[in-house]
Design a protein that fits this description.
13 helices, mainly alpha, single chain
């Protein structure tokens, strides 16, 4: 289904609206968002470090098993520990994604109800009401489809690079990697409105495939991708990049001069600064959707997606009766000949 090109949002119009949305409740929103983000980063970093240490000890354990100095059961325990840590990291990632979606919904409701503050209480309320069994399927679909779109380039990279050498291998590898990043970025932009569009039609999603939210998002972003990218780049990426460049440079200077205090200070300031800016990021996402959807007919975006309720419940098939197909009767050769003779007689006449 082809969608008409949609109206884009000028930066001059978007920035004042963003300032009006974020500024009044920034501190109330900053503490829970930054606090949860910092705790999440710290836990993932600790678990990743622990996982790397177990992986390093696993190679030593395998060597000891080869020489009969350790039991093979030790390898099994190490593998189970690695799998357990990966599972915990995945669970934390899902929790943090749910928290981010709840924060975006809080800002969205803030635009509809200006009296509602964006605070720890309001974010927690949206988090509790979130249908996590549906949202996590949207997360998985986005990851799956983005992976499938990038898979052909990864296969080309794996097949082509071993046959090249020298400068050709380097430039080819970089070219494929850049193309792969462009594909991932493009699909991420296409699927960026899935959570909001799911919320628009949440009751209708009961029993339906969550990939319909991705389909609606692709249609929603028709003609808007470059506009969305420009707003995200200027208001989201550039501030965080400049902050990281300044204090990441301080951390690098600490490593270069062996002044490790500066390294730790730089890393901490990068994490804290980006975490404190996240309320603005979530507000940008919610504000863009609300402004872009103004005047749009939502049913058009979901056209030819949802299955009828009768099909989902099975009611449509209750009275269906199976009838075997009857084989077609083949005309006998004598009948064919008589038909041919009649046809030839008509021609002679």
């Amino acid at each position: 289904m082809k969608m008409e090109k949609q109206r884009t949002l000028p930066m001059k119009e978007f920035f004042p609206s963003l300032k009006e949305l974020v500024k009044p409740n920034y501190l109330k929103a900053m503490w829970p968002v930054a606090g949860v983000s910092i705790i999440f980063i710290a836990l993932v970093a600790i678990l990743a470090l622990l996982n790397s240490n177990i992986a390093a000890s696993l190679s030593m354990t395998m060597m000891m098993v080869m020489y009969g100095m350790a039991s093979p059961v030790a390898i099994l325990f190490s593998l189970l520990e690695i799998i357990g840590i990966v599972a915990i990291i995945a669970a934390l990632a899902f929790f943090y994604t749910f928290f981010g979606v709840a924060t975006q919904y809080t800002y969205q409701d803030k635009m509809a109800h200006p009296e509602q503050p964006v605070s720890a209480g309001s974010i927690w309320m949206h988090y509790k009401h979130l249908r996590k069994n549906q949202v996590w399927r949207i997360v998985l679909y986005i990851g799956l489809f983005t992976f499938l779109w990038s898979l052909p380039l990864n296969i080309v990279n794996a097949l082509l690079l071993p046959r090249l050498s020298g400068v050709a291998a380097v430039y080819t590898g970089w070219a494929i990697r850049i193309l792969n990043d462009i594909v991932v970025l493009w699909k991420s932009i296409e699927y960026s409105q899935s959570y909001f569009l799911y919320r628009e039609k949440q009751p209708q999603f009961l029993g339906q495939s969550m990939r319909y939210a991705l389909t609606a998002s692709r249609r929603f972003m028709t003609g808007r991708k470059w506009n969305y990218f420009a707003i995200q780049f200027v208001l989201e990426f550039l501030p965080m990049f400049i902050w990281t460049l300044i204090f990441g440079g301080l951390a690098f200077y600490g490593v270069y001069t062996a002044t490790y205090v500066l390294t730790y200070i730089g890393i901490v300031l990068v994490i804290v600064g980006i975490s404190c800016y996240l309320p603005v990021v979530y507000a940008i996402l919610a504000l863009y959707y609300n402004k872009a959807r103004a005047g749009m007919e939502m049913d058009v975006l979901f056209k030819d997606t949802f299955k009828p309720v009768a099909e989902l419940t099975g009611e449509a098939y209750v009275h269906e009766v199976y009838v075997e197909k009857q084989p077609k009767e083949q005309p006998s050769p004598t009948v064919k000949r008589e038909d041919e003779k009649k046809h030839e007689a008509k021609k002679d006449e």
